[in-house]
Amino acid sequence: MSSRRSRSSRQPGPSRITDDQINDLVSKLQQLLPEIHDMRSKKVSSARVLQETCNYIRNLHKEVDDLSERLSGLLETTDASQAAIIRNLLMQ
Amino acid sequence: MTAQQSPNPSSLRTRFTYRFLRALKELNKHRSATSWPSYRRVKVAADASMAGAVKSRRAWTRAVLRKIRRGHRSPRWHRPLATRELRRKIRKKHGGNPRKLRGSHGEFGQTNELRKLVPGGESMEITSLLGETAHYIKCLSTQVHRQREYFVPPDQLTFQ
């Protein structure tokens, strides 16, 4: 009982985040961004990576909105939607 | 932590497509069942399919599904009511002011913006926010690619 307590008090809380950890995560993020993923040789600041991440997510959201709108238009015309669904099923 | 939880793109794609087609079929069946405009229903179907297709439950998928469930009960999409409750929760969890928490990593001022864009991001600490963001981007781009394929003429489809 007492040993458990002493162990838990010795352990650093979840707030111990090192800069290395964050840099590692940021560089992973950078590899996913089409705009700057091949700029690994040059130094890209974390702020820039985060800014690009925000832009990229915003673009993807916009594209989902746009595609959903077009897809709903496709669904309105039943024949086209059937064709699309069959086509996609065949693609699997 | 990250290696085993990163999505397998090919199976994720298949699971997403399966769920999405099933959702579209349901949509077609009950075309005028809800008062939402139909593009919104397609978008919700796509988002829900992607969140459901991720095998390991992530914070962001839970947030997406929670948001959709809430949206079903109330026609209002964003419910500002939630923010006060959320703030209280964060304060309890981190023992401090959420505003202070956000700004605690000096140069990461942009994280505020990121928190608004990643589902559930408001209540994450910085490392999970970055991890969830990476995972979310992968899934979202898969979703966009798949949705785009509906508009590619059949003879131009490439099998990856």
From TrEMBL, chain A:
Main location group: nucleus
InterPro entries assigned to the protein according to its UniProt record, in alphabetical order: bHLH_dom, HLH_DNA-bd_sf, PRE
Sorted UniProt keywords: Growth regulation, Nucleus, Transcription, Transcription regulation
Residue stretches making up the BHLH domain: 6-60
Record-level Gene Ontology MF annotations: protein dimerization activity
Classification via PANTHER family: TRANSCRIPTION FACTOR ILI6, TRANSCRIPTION FACTOR PRE
Protein name in UniProt: BHLH domain-containing protein
UniProtKB/TrEMBL annotation, chain B:
InterPro entries noted in UniProt: IBH1-like, IBH1_N
The keyword Transcription belongs to this UniProt entry's keyword annotation: yes
Single biological process term from Gene Ontology: regulation of DNA-templated transcription
Ranges for domain IBH1-like N-terminal: 10-71
Transmembrane segments annotated in the record for this chain: none
Keywords: Transcription, Transcription regulation
Pfam families: IBH1_N
Superkingdom of the source species: Eukaryota
Protein name: IBH1-like N-terminal domain-containing protein
Species of provenance: Escallonia rubra
